[in-house]
Amino acid sequence: MMLIAGVDVGNDTTEVALAELRPGRPPQFLSSSLVTTVGIKGTVQNVTGIIEALDCALQRLGRHRSELDLVLLNEATPVIGDIAMETITETVITESAMIGHNPSTPGGCGLGLGITVELGQLASQPPDRPYIVIVPGEVDFRAAAARINEAWAAGKQVVGAVIQRDDGVLICNRLHRPIPIVDEVEHVDRIPLGMPAAVEVAPPGRTVEKLSNPYDIATLFGLTPDETRQVVPVARALMGTRSAVVIKTPRGEIQERRIPAGKLILIGDRLKAEVSIDEGAEAIMAKAAEVAPLVEIQAEPGTHVGGMFERVRRVMAELTDQPVSAIRVQDIMAVDTLRPQKVLGGLAGEYALGNAVALAAMVETRRLPMQRVARKLESEIQVAVQVGGVEAEAAILGALTTPGTQPPLAIVDLGGGSTDASVINERGEIRSVHLAGAGDMVTKLIDSELGLDDIDLAEKIKRHPLAKTESLFHLRHEDGSVQFFENALDPRIFGRVVVLSPEGPIPIATRETLSRIAHVRTDAKRKVFVSNALRALQRVAPAGNVRLIDFVVLVGGSAEDFEIPRMISDTLTEYGVVTGRANVRGSEGPRNAVATGLVLGYAAKEHGLSTPWKINQNTNP
Amino acid sequence: MENQSKHKPLKPAVWIRVCGETVAEWLDPILLGMEEEGIPAELHDGAEDVLETAAWEAARASPLEVGVAVDFGAQKAVLHHRDLPQAQPILKLDSASFNGQGLRRLGCNAARLVKGDPLVFSNEAKRTGSEARENPGVSEELVTLVAAIVRHLIGKI
């Protein structure tokens, strides 16, 4: 009788399957464990994590390391992935032509059209025209209200105000005649004076109607058709805001400018092509498909993407004792995304969503030096360690322990750094592929689109559902259901959208609604995993036809996600494929496939146990 | 029936209990904070007892279920809600924050508590947009400008 452990070192997790092996009998699995991988996969630091995982699995049985007879280590897939983002547009307001930051408590209501004048200069102005008064932060709101009232008494029409402080409501409440007031404008000092301007504030719950319509702006300022065309982006930028200011400067406007973001050089078997990153993800992926099969991808140095390519190649070079020049980026995945950026030339710290391209790149090599890891492990635990089993083969053997499965079968591994697919046919032949773009990319997209600048929070938003705190004692979940609490909720989450992490609800510091955050989350998963699952299956399916696959099981960390398996399943149903989350050994869910498969493979080889199919070594694409 | 006709309905307002002497310079910011957020406030006298109790009783009396108690002499203030345990108010203002800004924020939060809006804390700006964390002391515009200059120079090399 042997006590053996199968160990799978992955990018993010290290998993162990512990089993008893008696001659002539199938292995009896006793326990499993899962820990975070220590160090980069393939380096001797992994040993720390492996030992932790082994001890954990052994502890569950009350047994000790010395009782282990053999440890089987996977020949880890030699794949390293990384992600970078390039912003390809920026928003610029020229000549301070508009203000659209949408403060929460503007004053008054209605539309005012007049000439901009500083409050201090109001008294000396002629009474023959209406005025929009600019109030800097040094002026007390009571004094401001008094001076505006004085001006009215002197026959001067003050029809609107733009103020620096958050005093819009306070001033308006003290005026003899209410006027629309836009407040919280940080840079009032940059507002051009002596210019025609319009200030509009909508009633609560509504949005501006005139300043979001180019023809109304044309009416207010007497614009020519050409000038009206120029003002269209301004009108569009003000749609959906409750308050707005437009100033008619000679050539002022709001522009979305393209930012040059460098090129990618796509080198295929026979063709070569170049594509600019600022053409967007669709163009990049289309060009890559034209040039396929890809041999290498190069990026321009000095760009974010170029820097990332360098990084990922360097890590692999160090890992495999090769020169960097020998390492090539072999797969990329580009996804269009948005990124909130400060508007250049904005007067009130406005943010606008800029376009960005997120790029995941992957390098692959023949083998990782797992022998080094094995030797170190052996010396540390004093148990024989064997490196063996091509990972794809072990993964399939493990996945096939899912009740209800049989070859031909495909597995899709939804990992952190790469999305992998392997397929086994009736003859036991296996094909596998690794693609760039996986869990880490989803997190990065969520972080970017919500402007969080907090990868940990983005990761939590990816994994857990949302809720909104509606009162001190209850929150409303995404699905509309309400959860009540005996003890009052933390004031820091009051009124906020929160993510329901295992450690408790965490507030998300954003003005976005719950449904928008949920949409960003779901969209990021779809953009990465649904397209990559399909892309990967197309590469390993017989004749590239996904319809010829009957069963797909999903494994890996992201297969445990509460949304992803359903989304992939919805897409694959159209191809007539049965998709589901694996249930390794009927108990482990989508985890532990490789670790289990290592044990099964060993048992089959050593003890001549038959498996319902014969596994043939290595038929890779 | 007669009782009902004599009974005047209470005006919907947050109750602010002033325990001790009123200091207008400090009472004003609280009232302004509430006014800017659009929620009415009503002033009442309070005895100088435990501030949490005074605030809690104010919250229970207020038709909007929110109460504030402030002791200008001791430089303390408490924000409470009728459903909370008496000894656990939602916010307490200590003497370090007992200034124009802190008191305005207190009024603002009292109103937001009524409205169900997120509260404002001293280390955040009132307007929370999708804002990136800012480098203290380095403006975003400066960073953009430097980046543009560096890119330009690299192009020249």
* Main sheet makeup of chain A: 7 strands, mixed
Radius of gyration of chain B: 22 Å
Note the gap between the termini of chain B: 92 Å
Number of strands of chain B: 5
Total strand segments of chain A: 30
How confident is the prediction overall: mean pLDDT of chain A? 91
Task: State which percent range the strand residues of chain B make up.
Answer: 15-25%
Strand content of chain A: 25-35%
Strand order of the largest sheet of chain B: 2-1-3-4-5
Assembly state of the chains shown: heterodimer
> Which structural category do the helix and sheet elements of chain A fall into?
alpha+beta
Instruction: Give the C-alpha Rg of chain A.
Output: 31 Å
- Low-confidence segments of chain A: 612-621
Backbone shape of chain A: elongated
Instruction: Estimate the mean pLDDT confidence of chain B.
Output: 83
Pair with the biggest interface: A-B, 36 and 33 residues
Task: Describe, in plain words, how this protein is organized in 3D.
Chain A is of the alpha+beta class and 621 residues long. Helices cover 28% and strands 30% of the residues of chain A. Chain A contains 14 helices and 30 strands. In chain A, the strands form seven sheets. Chain A has a seven-stranded mixed sheet with strand order 7-13-12-8-9-10-11. Chain A has a five-stranded mixed sheet with strand order 3-2-1-4-20, with helices on both faces. In chain A, strand 24 and strand 25 (474-477) form a beta hairpin. The longest helix of chain A has 27 residues, at 514-540. Chain B is of the alpha/beta class. Chain B has five helices and five strands; from the N terminus they run H-E-H-E-H-E-E-E-H-H. Chain B has helices at 2-6, 24-37, 51-61, 100-115, 140-156, and strands spanning 14-19, 41-46, 66-71, 76-81, 91-93. Chain B has a five-stranded mixed sheet with strand order 2-1-3-4-5, with helices on both faces. In chain B, helix 2 (24-37) runs parallel beside helix 4 (100-115). The N and C termini of chain B lie far apart (92 Å). Residues 125-137 of chain B have low confidence and may be disordered. Chain A binds chain B through residues 101, 103-105, 166-170, 173, 184, 302, 340, 342, 344, 349, 351, 450-451, 453-454, 470-473, 488, 491-492, 494-496, 507, 509-512, and chain B through 32, 35-38, 81, 83-85, 88, 90-91, 112-113, 115-119, 121, 124, 126-133, 140-141, 144, 154.
